[in-house]
Amino acid sequence: MRILRRVSEYGAARVADLAELFKVSEMTIRRDLDALAERGALDKVHGGATSRASRTEEPGFAAKSARQQAEKDAIARAAVELITPGSSIGISAGTTTWTLARQLTGIPDLTVVTNSIQIADVFHAAPAPNTSVVLTGGVRTPSDALVGPVAVAALSQLHVDLVFLGVHGIDPDAGFTTPNILEAETDRAMISAARRLIVLADHTKWRTVGLSTIARLDQADVLISDDALPADALDTLGEQVGDLVIATASS
Length: 251
Fold this sequence. Notes:
Blueprint: H1 2-10, E1 12-14, H2 15-22, H3 26-38, E2 43-45, E3 48-50, H4 61-65, H5 69-80, E4 88-91, H6 95-102, E5 111-114, H7 117-125, E6 132-135, E7 139-140, E8 146-147, H8 149-155, E9 160-166, E10 169-171, E11 175-178, H9 181-192, E12 194-200, E13 212-215, E14 222-226, H10 231-240, E15 244-247
Parallel strand pairs: 4-5, 4-9, 5-6, 9-12, 12-14, 14-15
Antiparallel strand pairs: 1-3, 2-3, 7-8, 10-11, 11-13
């Protein structure tokens, strides 16, 4: 089916885009997506669909950005409260951190260090007064992170007040993880450059384990998640992270 091929190729697709591409109504697209979701061929999300990926696969940026939008918005709003004008901050690649970046363009005098082209573009498109952006080099991953020795070398020379880290998974034993070994190494370098580590992760990341560990749970000074986090996660994370912040996602 053409819709399934499109979603599989790009990792995600929006209803409006599919309707325009195939010259049919959005209602028709929604019915087709419902049928494909019932067969387990894809996952429906608000406004579209995403392809199904295993826990160790690394979906592309488009696929991840379509998931848990309300939760990511709530998490980003809570994270903004930790940032004051004049701060230097590191922002790792990811769709939750990208959501945070979009809410930071009104804060002046920031110095932003990132290994994400997508995040750098946010500040380029809507620059806040006196904001400086440092984009590391590196090899580009499917999730649009710049990783590897070049990125690590750049980060080793820098110092920031806070680092905001997006992760693929959170597990009591594995800690904060990612499917990409080079991305884990780069994220560790960013953590080392910061005074405080703030992890941004919605409830779906709980008990998901990627290939490589970025950091232990107790290394997070703050973890911001959403109010759908299950009870066992609340208990475990409340004991292990420095400060657990639960953001309320709008319905």
